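Board notes, transcribed. Complex of a protein with glycine.
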Amino acid sequence: MSMRSRIESIFEWLEEEDPEAIVILNSVKPHVDKTFFYASGLYRGEFENCALIMYPDHTAEMCVSKLESESASKSDIPMDIMEDREELKEWLEEKLSDKKKIGINASELTYKGFEKIQDSTEADIIDVSDAIIEARNRKDEKEIEILDKAGDIASSVAEEITDHISEGMKEFKVAAELSYRMRQKGASGDAFEIIAGSGPNSAEPHYTSGKRELQKGDFLVLDFGALYKRYRSDITRTYIIGEASDRQKKMYSTVLEAQKAALDMIEPGVEGAEVHNAAKEVIDSTEFEGKFIHGLGHSIGLSTHDGSGLSPNVEVTLEPGMVFTVEPGIYISDFGGVRIEDDIVVTEEGYRLLTDADKEMRVL
Ligand code: GLY
Ligand code: MN
Ligand code: MN
């Protein structure tokens, strides 16, 4: 599949700027710009210290190290193969020295990478990261197909994991089970560090996992996702171990209701902040007022946090093709937390769930 439409989309999102070229320059992991993969469509390879240049006629070319050349050949973007890093410098000079204005992705470029580009040209260097985010936030059919699969893998693991969880199990074992099961279903890895937080640990939104053993009366927050063809899913389910108290039941039903209120809002033309507010209002109208302490969701794609979101701090009007998580939560220190998270794609009519595991309250 040609990626020209993705490159076209980046250039279309530019406003006053009219760069003669946009340079994507990778450093070493994790400072490898995912835009390199957005523009090339490549699934495999690391592409550390490699570069890709996009042009206003929607063509591109790349400079890759020898060890990536086999992977790179799967893209229709012409490539030059470099023997060593010195050649990358020469390549940048050859391509950029006659340019007057070039764009960079300042959100992902390292300072050293920036200096390398500066050394290769006299051109004005402008940041085009906003245009890149706008383009990447509107997923094309191919991307949605991959995100669907990433969502399916995580959803089916969320369904089956409940048969493998019991009192006494350590959190990190639950995380390992999740990871193993996603790999068994075709994931190439975890989308991010898995969260398996039990008891009071479930009140920490970005907990990971530890050696705490699951106890009767615990909440267990499982937040995980599949990495598939470089794209990511992100799902959270919260379970209760052994026996649920009335307070836990109320927390759970409030979060579920908040998620439903938010999902019901989603359709083209709605502001992301309004969707957040719909969930927040549900939670704030209960005894759990003020305990929803983060944005409702983030855009997701090649990155788990892909640059946009459903939050009072992000300005975005929903459009078909945008993909977000919807993840309200209630967090009570020294007690526990509940979060329910699904991934959705905005459609012409409203939205479609990319993750669809059951979310009725479950006591395990
Ligand atoms: N798993 C990280 C998040 O939900 O944003
Ligand atoms: Mn998550
Ligand atoms: Mn998330």
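The longest helix spans residues 141-161. The chain has ten helices and 19 strands.
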